[in-house]
Amino acid sequence: MAAVNGAAGGDTKAAFARIYDALKGDLLKDPAFEFTNESHQWIDRMLDYNVLGGKLNRGLSVVDSYKLLKGADDLSEEEMFLASTLGWCIEWLQAFFLVLDDIMDDSVTRRGQPCWFRVPQVGFIAVNDGIILRNHISRMLRLHFKKKPYYADLLDLFNEVEFKTASGQMLDLITTHEGEKDLTKYNIGVHRRIVQYKTAYYSFYLPVACALLLSGENLENYSAVENILVEMGTYFQVQDDYLDCYGEPEFIGKIGTDIEDYKCSWLVVQALERANESQKSVLFENYGKKDPASVAKVKTLYRELNLEAVFHEYESESYKKLITEIEAQPSVAVQKVLKSFLHKIYKRQK
User: Fold this and answer.
1) Residues with catalytic annotation?
2) Cβ–Cβ < 8 Å for 33, 10
3) Which residues have a Cβ under 8 Å from the Cβ of 272 and sit 6 or more positions away?
């Protein structure tokens, strides 16, 4: 195992970042493939471009959750390495999803730079790079966890979450199919299903499940925890949908385009539920159009339907329900993990 210094105590984020370098180094000398100079440079650059650059929230959540489950502020060097490796596996999974997602959506930028497939000389080589990113997860798990009693459970967990996420992406793509715009397909059940599978499992459940396995727990005993985290992930995406329309661009770091992009957003679903026939015709006429006048008409309709207040009521009710469910968990350590997630996102502004 690559040595990692200073993992116990100190700055978790700095230690986590150092472990990325160690993991990348292992992958770049994987004995299963005979690297040329050119392929070595390609993978090195591709990893830095796609795995780094995000907020690393999902990966760091594994380390934070593991500390809370252990009831320890500091981890041994090996514990920090293993928790961080699982955290980075989630960041690799995120990179795999985003590289392919950007191609499917024909996106232009990601994290303030051109999407990987837009980089000169990359193009659709990015599809193969996505496959390599996914395979790197299996390589890292095999290298560092093969002798652990929970190795098979880890493989199963990543496979299960990847399948759920890909299925959520499929549902999103076929519901918002370009050239077949049909708002009658949009309802709260469709929105919930897309969000639950596309976002909640890998962003909320996966980090905690990794920490539970590291702690020697059996995931079959934590179905209630899984349900709470999926609920939390759904609430998180509803916040995202709300902020896309009502957040300040300079504060949230992006200009919202859900209306222009014809997204199955929580706001449009709520509007469809509440609108009278003339208001629905405004939505059908203007939703999904790029011109600012159409976007303004949709936003005016959202104001008429008082969707800001509807969201704040939803947020308050979701919080109360989640807290009740969390406090019903028998393990105080698990309660702490779940509350740490909830308090990071409750009433967030970006």
Assistant:
1) 55, 96, 101, 105, 110, 172, 198, 236, 240-241
2) no
3) 183, 186, 187, 280, 283
pLDDT: which is higher, 299 or 254: 299
Helix (H) or strand (E) holding 113: strand 113-114
| CB neighbour list of residue 193: distance below 8 Å, 6 or more residues apart | 168, 171
On the 0-12 / 13-18 / 19+ scale of CB atoms within 10 A, 77 is middle
**Which long-range contacts (C-beta less than 8 Å, at least 24 apart) are formed by 261-265?**
261/176, 261/288, 262/176, 262/181, 262/287, 262/288, 263/176, 264/172, 264/175, 264/176, 264/185, 264/186, 264/190, 264/191, 264/194, 265/191, 265/241
The number of angstroms, rounded, from the C-alpha of 124 to the middle of its chain's C-alpha atoms is 23
Nearest CA to 324 out of 201, 224, 223, 203 is that of 224
Q: Cα–Cα distance between 65 and 301 in angstroms, integer?
A: 42
Is 62 in contact with 94 (CB distance < 8 Å)?
A: no
Please, are residues 277 and 204 in contact by the beta-carbon 8 Å criterion?
no
State pLDDT tens for residues 249-284. Answer: 666 566 778 898 888 999 999 999 999 999 999 999
Query: Which amino acid type is present at position 190?
Result: V
C-alpha to C-alpha distances, 36 to 40, 41, 123, 124, 225, nearest whole angstrom: 6, 9, 21, 21, 46
CA triplet 114, 90, 111: central angle to 5 degrees? 20
Q: Is residue 132 classed as helix, strand or coil in its secondary structure?
A: helix
Tell me the residue type at 54: G
> What is the pTM (predicted TM-score) of this model?
0.90
Contact 331, 296 (CB under 8 A): no
* 266 vs 4 pLDDT, higher one: 266
Q: E strand or H helix at 16, and its extent?
A: helix 12-27
Closest CA to 226 of 157, 286, 289, 176: 157
Amino acid at position 308, single letter: E
